[in-house]
Design goal:
This protein has 332 residues and is mainly alpha-helical. The chain folds into 2 domains: 4-189 and 295-325, HUPs (Rossmann fold); 211-291, Tyrosyl-Transfer RNA Synthetase (Orthogonal Bundle), CATH 1.10.240. Helices cover 54% and strands 8% of the residues. A 3-stranded parallel beta sheet has the order 1-2-3. Strand 4, helix 9 (153-169) and strand 5 (179-182) form a beta-alpha-beta unit. It is globular and about 80 Å long. The relative contact order is 0.15. The structure holds adenosine-5'-triphosphate (ATP) and magnesium ion. Adenosine-5'-triphosphate binds at residues 9-10, 12, 18-19, 22-23, 148-149, 151-152, 187-188, 196-200.
Length: 332
Protein backbone atom coordinates (compact mmCIF):
# COMPACT_ATOMS: atom_id res chain seq x y z
CA UNK A 1 0.00 0.00 0.00
CA UNK A 2 1.34 3.47 -0.83
CA UNK A 3 2.23 5.91 1.91
CA UNK A 4 -0.24 8.53 3.06
CA UNK A 5 0.75 12.18 2.79
CA UNK A 6 -0.91 15.05 4.65
CA UNK A 7 -0.13 18.71 4.08
CA UNK A 8 -2.00 21.92 4.39
CA UNK A 9 -2.03 25.67 4.53
CA UNK A 10 -3.74 28.28 6.62
CA UNK A 11 -6.25 30.33 4.60
CA UNK A 12 -4.89 33.68 5.75
CA UNK A 13 -4.16 34.94 2.24
CA UNK A 14 -3.28 33.74 -1.23
CA UNK A 15 -0.35 31.32 -1.48
CA UNK A 16 3.09 32.65 -2.35
CA UNK A 17 6.36 31.49 -3.86
CA UNK A 18 7.52 30.23 -0.45
CA UNK A 19 4.63 27.76 -0.47
CA UNK A 20 5.37 26.85 -4.06
CA UNK A 21 9.03 26.04 -3.57
CA UNK A 22 8.70 24.88 0.06
CA UNK A 23 5.95 22.35 -0.43
CA UNK A 24 3.48 22.75 -3.34
CA UNK A 25 6.00 21.51 -5.90
CA UNK A 26 6.53 18.38 -3.79
CA UNK A 27 2.80 17.84 -3.47
CA UNK A 28 2.28 17.93 -7.22
CA UNK A 29 5.14 15.45 -7.64
CA UNK A 30 3.80 13.14 -4.92
CA UNK A 31 0.17 12.98 -6.02
CA UNK A 32 0.72 10.28 -8.64
CA UNK A 33 2.32 7.80 -6.28
CA UNK A 34 0.96 8.54 -2.84
CA UNK A 35 -2.35 8.71 -1.08
CA UNK A 36 -2.47 12.50 -0.67
CA UNK A 37 -4.61 14.68 1.60
CA UNK A 38 -4.45 18.46 1.54
CA UNK A 39 -6.10 20.36 4.34
CA UNK A 40 -7.15 23.99 4.29
CA UNK A 41 -6.55 24.77 7.94
CA UNK A 42 -9.24 27.36 8.64
CA UNK A 43 -9.54 26.48 12.34
CA UNK A 44 -5.79 26.79 12.80
CA UNK A 45 -5.92 30.12 10.92
CA UNK A 46 -8.48 31.36 13.46
CA UNK A 47 -5.98 30.79 16.27
CA UNK A 48 -4.31 34.09 15.39
CA UNK A 49 -7.17 35.58 13.35
CA UNK A 50 -10.11 34.87 15.67
CA UNK A 51 -11.20 38.49 15.34
CA UNK A 52 -11.20 38.34 11.54
CA UNK A 53 -13.17 35.25 10.53
CA UNK A 54 -14.26 36.87 7.26
CA UNK A 55 -10.64 36.93 6.05
CA UNK A 56 -10.27 33.23 6.87
CA UNK A 57 -13.54 32.26 5.22
CA UNK A 58 -12.83 34.19 2.02
CA UNK A 59 -9.36 32.71 1.67
CA UNK A 60 -10.52 29.08 1.82
CA UNK A 61 -11.65 29.38 -1.80
CA UNK A 62 -8.57 31.39 -2.83
CA UNK A 63 -6.15 28.81 -1.40
CA UNK A 64 -7.99 26.00 -3.16
CA UNK A 65 -7.77 27.97 -6.43
CA UNK A 66 -4.00 28.23 -5.90
CA UNK A 67 -3.80 24.45 -5.46
CA UNK A 68 -5.68 23.76 -8.67
CA UNK A 69 -3.70 26.43 -10.54
CA UNK A 70 -0.32 24.82 -9.71
CA UNK A 71 -1.54 21.44 -10.88
CA UNK A 72 -2.92 19.66 -7.85
CA UNK A 73 -5.50 17.28 -9.23
CA UNK A 74 -8.59 16.70 -7.05
CA UNK A 75 -9.03 13.28 -8.70
CA UNK A 76 -5.72 12.24 -7.16
CA UNK A 77 -5.61 14.32 -3.97
CA UNK A 78 -8.30 14.75 -1.37
CA UNK A 79 -8.60 18.49 -0.68
CA UNK A 80 -10.67 19.27 2.41
CA UNK A 81 -11.61 21.96 4.93
CA UNK A 82 -10.45 21.45 8.52
CA UNK A 83 -13.58 22.92 10.14
CA UNK A 84 -15.77 20.35 8.37
CA UNK A 85 -14.04 17.50 10.22
CA UNK A 86 -15.11 17.90 13.88
CA UNK A 87 -13.44 14.58 14.77
CA UNK A 88 -10.11 16.44 14.59
CA UNK A 89 -11.09 18.57 17.56
CA UNK A 90 -12.06 15.61 19.72
CA UNK A 91 -8.68 14.04 18.96
CA UNK A 92 -7.03 17.34 19.94
CA UNK A 93 -8.62 17.20 23.38
CA UNK A 94 -7.24 13.71 24.06
CA UNK A 95 -3.78 14.73 22.83
CA UNK A 96 -3.69 17.87 24.98
CA UNK A 97 -3.23 15.56 27.98
CA UNK A 98 -0.07 14.12 26.48
CA UNK A 99 2.09 17.22 26.20
CA UNK A 100 3.25 19.69 28.83
CA UNK A 101 2.62 23.43 28.69
CA UNK A 102 6.35 24.08 29.03
CA UNK A 103 7.08 21.82 26.04
CA UNK A 104 4.67 23.90 23.97
CA UNK A 105 6.12 27.16 25.24
CA UNK A 106 9.63 26.03 24.32
CA UNK A 107 8.67 25.16 20.74
CA UNK A 108 10.96 27.27 18.50
CA UNK A 109 8.36 27.64 15.74
CA UNK A 110 5.72 28.93 18.12
CA UNK A 111 8.26 31.22 19.81
CA UNK A 112 9.28 32.75 16.48
CA UNK A 113 5.67 33.13 15.36
CA UNK A 114 4.72 34.80 18.64
CA UNK A 115 7.35 37.46 18.10
CA UNK A 116 6.05 38.03 14.61
CA UNK A 117 2.39 38.19 15.53
CA UNK A 118 0.53 40.74 17.54
CA UNK A 119 -0.15 38.98 20.85
CA UNK A 120 3.41 38.49 22.10
CA UNK A 121 2.50 39.38 25.71
CA UNK A 122 -0.80 37.56 25.93
CA UNK A 123 -0.62 34.41 23.86
CA UNK A 124 -3.94 32.62 23.72
CA UNK A 125 -4.31 28.98 24.71
CA UNK A 126 -5.55 28.34 21.17
CA UNK A 127 -2.37 29.58 19.53
CA UNK A 128 -0.02 27.92 22.03
CA UNK A 129 -1.68 24.58 21.43
CA UNK A 130 -1.92 24.66 17.63
CA UNK A 131 0.88 22.05 17.34
CA UNK A 132 -1.41 19.65 19.25
CA UNK A 133 -4.23 20.27 16.81
CA UNK A 134 -1.72 19.68 14.02
CA UNK A 135 -0.89 16.31 15.61
CA UNK A 136 -4.60 15.50 15.38
CA UNK A 137 -4.63 16.45 11.68
CA UNK A 138 -1.62 14.28 10.88
CA UNK A 139 -2.66 11.23 12.90
CA UNK A 140 -6.34 11.30 11.87
CA UNK A 141 -5.22 10.35 8.37
CA UNK A 142 -2.35 8.12 9.59
CA UNK A 143 -0.02 10.25 7.50
CA UNK A 144 3.57 9.08 7.29
CA UNK A 145 4.89 11.91 5.17
CA UNK A 146 4.28 15.64 5.72
CA UNK A 147 5.68 18.07 3.12
CA UNK A 148 6.38 21.32 4.98
CA UNK A 149 8.69 24.31 5.05
CA UNK A 150 11.67 24.28 7.41
CA UNK A 151 9.85 26.46 9.95
CA UNK A 152 7.44 23.60 10.66
CA UNK A 153 10.02 20.94 11.65
CA UNK A 154 9.70 21.46 15.43
CA UNK A 155 5.91 21.18 15.13
CA UNK A 156 6.19 17.77 13.46
CA UNK A 157 8.51 16.75 16.31
CA UNK A 158 5.80 17.60 18.87
CA UNK A 159 3.33 15.53 16.87
CA UNK A 160 5.65 12.53 16.93
CA UNK A 161 6.18 12.91 20.68
CA UNK A 162 2.42 12.83 21.19
CA UNK A 163 2.15 9.73 19.00
CA UNK A 164 4.85 7.89 20.98
CA UNK A 165 3.29 8.89 24.27
CA UNK A 166 -0.20 7.90 23.19
CA UNK A 167 0.94 4.48 21.99
CA UNK A 168 2.95 3.92 25.18
CA UNK A 169 0.31 5.10 27.65
CA UNK A 170 -2.58 3.28 25.99
CA UNK A 171 -0.50 0.23 25.00
CA UNK A 172 -1.35 0.38 21.34
CA UNK A 173 0.28 0.95 17.98
CA UNK A 174 -2.61 2.59 16.15
CA UNK A 175 -1.00 6.00 15.76
CA UNK A 176 1.83 6.43 13.27
CA UNK A 177 4.81 8.74 13.44
CA UNK A 178 5.29 11.05 10.47
CA UNK A 179 8.34 12.20 8.61
CA UNK A 180 8.68 15.81 7.48
CA UNK A 181 9.59 16.30 3.85
CA UNK A 182 11.36 19.53 2.93
CA UNK A 183 11.32 21.11 -0.51
CA UNK A 184 14.60 21.94 -2.24
CA UNK A 185 14.37 25.36 -0.57
CA UNK A 186 13.34 24.87 3.06
CA UNK A 187 12.70 28.54 3.68
CA UNK A 188 12.34 31.22 1.03
CA UNK A 189 13.37 34.68 2.24
CA UNK A 190 11.02 37.65 2.08
CA UNK A 191 11.41 40.28 -0.65
CA UNK A 192 12.42 42.63 2.18
CA UNK A 193 15.32 40.34 3.17
CA UNK A 194 13.54 38.98 6.29
CA UNK A 195 14.21 35.32 7.03
CA UNK A 196 10.87 34.07 5.73
CA UNK A 197 8.43 35.16 3.06
CA UNK A 198 5.05 35.02 4.74
CA UNK A 199 1.46 36.01 4.14
CA UNK A 200 1.15 37.86 7.41
CA UNK A 201 4.42 39.79 6.98
CA UNK A 202 3.21 40.84 3.53
CA UNK A 203 6.69 40.38 2.14
CA UNK A 204 5.94 37.65 -0.37
CA UNK A 205 5.35 37.31 -4.08
CA UNK A 206 1.94 35.70 -4.42
CA UNK A 207 1.34 33.21 -7.19
CA UNK A 208 -1.71 35.24 -8.18
CA UNK A 209 0.16 38.58 -8.36
CA UNK A 210 -0.51 40.22 -11.75
CA UNK A 211 2.56 40.64 -13.91
CA UNK A 212 3.03 44.35 -13.14
CA UNK A 213 2.86 43.73 -9.38
CA UNK A 214 5.35 40.88 -9.70
CA UNK A 215 7.72 43.09 -11.67
CA UNK A 216 7.43 45.90 -9.15
CA UNK A 217 8.19 43.48 -6.28
CA UNK A 218 11.25 42.10 -8.05
CA UNK A 219 12.60 45.58 -8.77
CA UNK A 220 12.06 46.61 -5.13
CA UNK A 221 14.15 43.68 -3.82
CA UNK A 222 16.99 44.27 -1.44
CA UNK A 223 20.41 43.53 -3.00
CA UNK A 224 23.68 44.87 -1.60
CA UNK A 225 23.66 48.48 -0.34
CA UNK A 226 27.38 48.79 -1.12
CA UNK A 227 26.91 47.78 -4.72
CA UNK A 228 26.34 51.29 -5.97
CA UNK A 229 28.06 51.42 -9.34
CA UNK A 230 27.90 48.48 -11.74
CA UNK A 231 31.68 48.13 -11.54
CA UNK A 232 31.63 47.79 -7.70
CA UNK A 233 32.14 44.29 -6.30
CA UNK A 234 28.86 42.97 -4.85
CA UNK A 235 27.81 40.56 -2.10
CA UNK A 236 25.92 37.42 -3.09
CA UNK A 237 25.24 36.27 0.49
CA UNK A 238 22.15 37.96 1.93
CA UNK A 239 21.27 39.26 -1.53
CA UNK A 240 17.55 38.60 -2.04
CA UNK A 241 17.75 38.57 -5.85
CA UNK A 242 20.31 35.76 -5.73
CA UNK A 243 18.27 33.89 -3.11
CA UNK A 244 15.32 33.89 -5.54
CA UNK A 245 17.52 33.00 -8.52
CA UNK A 246 18.93 30.09 -6.47
CA UNK A 247 15.39 28.90 -5.87
CA UNK A 248 13.89 29.45 -9.32
CA UNK A 249 16.54 29.84 -12.02
CA UNK A 250 17.02 26.52 -13.77
CA UNK A 251 20.46 27.01 -15.34
CA UNK A 252 22.62 26.45 -12.26
CA UNK A 253 25.91 26.63 -14.21
CA UNK A 254 25.09 30.06 -15.54
CA UNK A 255 24.11 31.11 -12.05
CA UNK A 256 27.58 30.17 -10.75
CA UNK A 257 29.18 32.39 -13.38
CA UNK A 258 26.75 35.26 -12.69
CA UNK A 259 27.66 35.10 -9.00
CA UNK A 260 31.38 35.17 -9.82
CA UNK A 261 30.85 38.17 -12.09
CA UNK A 262 28.76 39.99 -9.45
CA UNK A 263 31.40 39.39 -6.76
CA UNK A 264 34.13 40.72 -9.01
CA UNK A 265 32.14 43.76 -10.17
CA UNK A 266 30.71 44.52 -13.60
CA UNK A 267 27.23 43.04 -13.27
CA UNK A 268 24.42 45.50 -12.54
CA UNK A 269 21.44 44.94 -10.23
CA UNK A 270 19.05 45.87 -13.02
CA UNK A 271 20.37 43.11 -15.29
CA UNK A 272 19.92 40.58 -12.49
CA UNK A 273 16.43 41.81 -11.62
CA UNK A 274 15.40 41.65 -15.24
CA UNK A 275 16.61 38.03 -15.39
CA UNK A 276 14.67 37.17 -12.22
CA UNK A 277 11.55 38.97 -13.42
CA UNK A 278 11.61 37.01 -16.69
CA UNK A 279 12.13 33.72 -14.83
CA UNK A 280 9.23 34.33 -12.44
CA UNK A 281 6.89 35.67 -15.14
CA UNK A 282 7.51 32.44 -17.11
CA UNK A 283 6.82 30.34 -14.05
CA UNK A 284 3.66 32.20 -13.06
CA UNK A 285 2.11 32.93 -16.48
CA UNK A 286 0.48 29.49 -16.89
CA UNK A 287 -0.45 29.36 -13.18
CA UNK A 288 -2.23 32.74 -13.36
CA UNK A 289 -3.98 31.74 -16.57
CA UNK A 290 -5.25 28.48 -15.07
CA UNK A 291 -6.35 30.32 -11.91
CA UNK A 292 -8.49 32.70 -13.94
CA UNK A 293 -10.34 29.77 -15.52
CA UNK A 294 -11.46 28.20 -12.22
CA UNK A 295 -14.91 29.13 -10.94
CA UNK A 296 -15.89 29.50 -7.29
CA UNK A 297 -18.65 26.91 -7.80
CA UNK A 298 -16.15 24.29 -9.02
CA UNK A 299 -13.99 24.94 -5.98
CA UNK A 300 -16.89 24.55 -3.55
CA UNK A 301 -17.84 21.28 -5.19
CA UNK A 302 -14.31 19.91 -4.89
CA UNK A 303 -14.09 20.97 -1.25
CA UNK A 304 -17.48 19.45 -0.36
CA UNK A 305 -16.56 16.09 -1.90
CA UNK A 306 -13.05 16.07 -0.44
CA UNK A 307 -14.30 16.97 3.04
CA UNK A 308 -16.90 14.18 2.96
CA UNK A 309 -14.24 11.64 2.02
CA UNK A 310 -11.74 12.95 4.60
CA UNK A 311 -14.33 12.91 7.36
CA UNK A 312 -15.01 9.20 6.94
CA UNK A 313 -11.34 8.45 7.52
CA UNK A 314 -11.09 10.71 10.56
CA UNK A 315 -14.22 9.08 12.01
CA UNK A 316 -12.60 5.68 11.73
CA UNK A 317 -9.40 6.83 13.45
CA UNK A 318 -11.41 8.47 16.21
CA UNK A 319 -13.24 5.22 16.90
CA UNK A 320 -9.90 3.44 17.23
CA UNK A 321 -8.54 6.17 19.51
CA UNK A 322 -11.60 6.07 21.80
CA UNK A 323 -11.30 2.32 22.01
CA UNK A 324 -7.56 2.47 22.72
CA UNK A 325 -8.13 4.96 25.56
CA UNK A 326 -10.94 2.78 26.84
CA UNK A 327 -13.76 5.28 26.95
CA UNK A 328 -17.13 3.90 27.83
CA UNK A 329 -18.98 2.63 24.78
CA UNK A 330 -22.75 2.71 25.05
CA UNK A 331 -24.85 2.30 21.95
CA UNK A 332 -26.92 5.48 21.42
P1 LIG B 1 1.11 33.03 7.91
O1 LIG B 1 1.92 34.27 7.75
O2 LIG B 1 -0.37 33.26 7.99
O3 LIG B 1 1.63 32.12 8.99
P2 LIG B 1 2.60 31.56 5.95
O4 LIG B 1 3.01 32.36 4.78
O5 LIG B 1 3.61 31.28 7.02
O6 LIG B 1 1.30 32.25 6.53
P3 LIG B 1 1.40 28.98 6.29
O7 LIG B 1 0.04 28.73 5.76
O8 LIG B 1 1.61 29.23 7.74
O9 LIG B 1 2.02 30.18 5.43
O10 LIG B 1 2.37 27.78 5.85
C1 LIG B 1 1.94 26.70 5.06
C2 LIG B 1 3.12 25.82 4.65
O11 LIG B 1 4.00 26.54 3.79
C3 LIG B 1 3.98 25.35 5.83
O12 LIG B 1 4.40 24.04 5.57
C4 LIG B 1 5.14 26.30 5.80
O13 LIG B 1 6.29 25.71 6.37
C5 LIG B 1 5.32 26.54 4.30
N1 LIG B 1 5.92 27.86 4.06
C6 LIG B 1 5.37 29.06 4.37
N2 LIG B 1 6.21 30.06 4.06
C7 LIG B 1 7.33 29.49 3.53
C8 LIG B 1 8.58 29.99 3.02
N3 LIG B 1 8.84 31.30 2.98
N4 LIG B 1 9.50 29.11 2.56
C9 LIG B 1 9.24 27.77 2.59
N5 LIG B 1 8.09 27.23 3.06
C10 LIG B 1 7.14 28.07 3.53
MG1 LIG C 1 2.94 30.37 8.93
Amino acid sequence: MSKTVLTGDRPTGHLHLGHYIGSLKNRVALQDEYNCFIMIADVQALSDNFDNPEKVRANVVEVCKDYLAVGINPEKCTIFIQSLIPELFELTVYYLNLVSVSRLERNPTVKAELQQKSFSESVTAGFLTYPVSQAADITAFKAQLVPVGEDQLPVIEVSNEIVRRFNRVYKTDILLEAEAMLGNVGRLVGIDGKAKASKSLNNAIFMSDPSDVLKQKVYSMYTDPNHVKMSDPGMVEGNVVFAYLDAFYEDKEELVSLKAQYRKGGLGDTTLKSLLNGTLQNLLDPIREKRESISGATVLDILANGSKKARKIAQQTLLEVREAIGLIDIAQ
